[in-house]
Amino acid sequence: MSVLSDEYIEKCIVSGQKEHNQKILLVEYDEQWPILFEKEKKRISQILKDKALMIEHIGSTSVAGLSAKPIIDILLVVEDAGCEEDYVEALCQQGYVLRIKEPDFENHHMFKGPDTDINLHVFSKGSKEIDKYLIFRNYLRAHPEARMLYEETKKKLAQKKWKYVQNYADAKSEVVLKIMALALEEAKKNN
Hints:
single chain, alpha+beta, five-stranded mixed beta sheet, 7 helices, globular
């Protein structure tokens, strides 16, 4: 995981506020988060129909008991994220707002939701990022000690003022890589 430059971050933001310039708000786990995810999953499925190949709840709000930014992270897998005509207009017509476009990072696109505070991350079928998100989530769900380490790291870093939210995410990289190594080792043993 590399630290992203300010120039790269600014280049990728296509709408909305660029700079954060404050601490990160973390809240205790909320039992409503899975319910909000299911509501969004249903809406996205109705909009995109069979173009939505996979819709998964990811990120800290998908791990029971874990403190998080109160933003539901959702993974949407489409055939080819570079074929924007397959999903961008349909989502935008229903109130989703395209915020980030990263053609150099597996054509990652990120939308904000029409009413619920979400980050909808779109990747192409076969992207290596899909497994990373799911393996990390599943490991945190199954391993309280990893969840606690991740939470302690997040709480410590959240106290700092961050120019971009991405800078906060980058600062967690060392711990994320450590947990991912354990998760991948476990996954290899189980296969």
